[in-house]
Amino acid sequence: MCGRFAFFSPREALAKAFPLDLGALPEPRYNIAPSQNVFLIRRDESGELQSDSCRWGLVPFWAKDPAIGNRMINARAETVAEKPAYRQAFSRRRCLILADGFYEWQQRADGKHPYFIGRLDGLPFAMAGLWDQWTKVPDKALRSCTVITSPANEFMQPLHHRMPVLMDWSAGSRWLDPTATTADLLQMLAAGAAMELQAWPVSRAVNNPVNDSAELLTPVTA
Predict the structure, then answer these.
(1) Element spanning 113, H or E
(2) Please, which pLDDT band fits residue 98 given cuts at 50, 70 and 90?
(3) Which sequence spans correspond to the domains of the chain?
(4) Residues labelled as active-site residues
């Protein structure tokens, strides 16, 4: 799964990984948690690519209560094209959620130990996602999103059995292509992007979303 991540790259590093005009960037974040806003790339109504800020935890347009988003921070790649909660967003409202790394907790005999996982080259990446807009309350439209996860690759398996679907711009631009077929999209989710990763243990201070500073990335003894 994916329950916490960080996004802090300066514009220069972001431009190297994603050659787009992304407008104003958010403040650096080191412990982004569900229900908080995330920075993403999506297509607008005219089909143009744009950056946006959306709440993490998908609230489908048909939901009666936006609290449903608390249970929909992740969508499984294996079923995302079929489940009613995600089916229409998968078809029409795909997005790329930008990140520099994500956290995962390794289960050990003495409890769970957090790790930070990022690209080996230090560049930012994207997590495949879906977005939606909830408009049940007049003048209070809510845009929200979810991170798509898949079975862990060989690198991640010692830490957790699932991980977000990671994409670079080459894969991400195809993920956002409105002409992509369902078969193509599912293949993208199964393959992800071939990027080398690195991971290191970090402080359990990351367990509390109130803590949000670069110190969270400091390696600790495993």
Answers:
(1) strand 111-119
(2) very high
(3) 5-203
(4) 2, 104
Which residue, among 164, 168, 155, 159, has the nearest Cα to 194 in the 3D structure? 168
User: How many CA atoms lie within 13 Å of 162's alpha carbon, on the beta-carbon side?
Assistant: 14
Measured CA distances, 122 to 16, 79, 98, 211 (Å): 11, 31, 14, 22
User: What is the side-by-side strand order in the sheet with 197-201?
Assistant: 29-32, 5-7, 101-108, 111-119, 197-201
DSSP string covering 133-179, please?
A: EE-SSTT--EEEEEEEEEE--TTTTTT-SEEE-EE-HHHHHHHT-TT
The string of pLDDT tens digits covering residues 38-47 is 999 999 989 9
* Closest C-alpha among 60, 78, 66, 74 to residue 3: 74
Contact in structure between 46 and 129 (CB atoms under 8 Å):
no
> Among 195, 186, 214, which residue's Cα sits nearest to residue 153?
195
- The whole-model pTM stands at 0.96
CA dist., res. 11 & res. 17, Å (int): 10
Alpha-carbon torsion angle 49, 53, 57, 61, nearest 10: -60
Pairing mode of beta strands 125-134, 166-167 = antiparallel
Pick the CATH number of 5-203 from 3.40.50.620, 1.10.530.10, 3.90.1680.10, 3.30.430.20: 3.90.1680.10
In contact, 100 and 28? CB cutoff 8 Å: no
